Amino acid sequence: MQENHLHEHPHDHEHPHDHDHPHDHDHPHDLGQVQALLEYMLDHNGHHAAELGDVAHRLSHAGLDEAAGILTQGVEAFKKGNEHLAQALELLKGGRS
Predict the structure, then answer these.
(1) Which of 1, 13, 16, 74 has the most CB atoms in a 10 Å sphere around its CB?
(2) Alpha-carbon dihedral angle through residues 61, 4, 55, 22, given to the nearest 10 degrees
(3) What pLDDT, on the 0 to 100 scale, is given for residue 72?
(4) Which has more pLDDT, 96 or 13?
(5) Cα(91)–Cα(15) distance, rounded to whole angstroms?
(6) What distance in Å separates the CA atoms of residue 51 and residue 37, rounded to the nearest whole number?
(7) In terms of C-beta density within 10 A (0-12 exposed, 13-18 middle, 19 or more buried), how is residue 32 classed?
């Protein structure tokens, strides 16, 4: 029988943001709103990348190295996407000065 907890050391998961945020498709014309959205998404996505990295760590400790490796690749892709968001945000900020 497999245990639910995969290894001994604790992992605190403070997750202060709400996952029930709306995903509407309005197109804000106020660049301040666009900037605020990008800033929020970068922070939000950063929390998720960290959590997924922790899951990969747990999988590795459970001996599920292949799954851990695939998830780690996903986390790296996630981080690369966040880098693109950050670049867009910097361009937006530069165009608004």
Answers:
(1) 74
(2) 180
(3) 97
(4) 96
(5) 29
(6) 21
(7) exposed
Residue 5 lies in a domain: no
37 close to 28: Cβ distance less than 8 angstroms: yes
Residue 38 near residue 92, CB atoms below 8 Å: yes
Whether 38 is covered by a domain: the verdict is: yes
Domains of the chain: total = 1
- Whether the full predicted model's pTM is greater than 0.70, yes or no, is no
- Enclosing domain of residue 41: 31-95
Q: Is residue 19 part of a domain?
A: no
In a domain, residue 13? The reply is no
| Residues 6+ positions from 37 with CB-CB distance below 8 Å | 28
